[in-house]
Amino acid sequence: MVRVNGSERGQLVLVAAVLVAVALAPVVLAYLQLGYHDDVRAAGAVDDPTDDTVRVLGRAVEQESASVPRRYAWADRTAAVTALRDALEPVRSRLRTGEMERGTVTEIRYNATAARAWQSANCPGGPGREFGNCSVDRGVVVQERTDRTHVLAVGFDVTTTSERGETAVTVVVEAVGG
Question: Is the dihedral of CA 111, 113, 118, 124 positive or negative?
Answer without folding.
Answer: positive
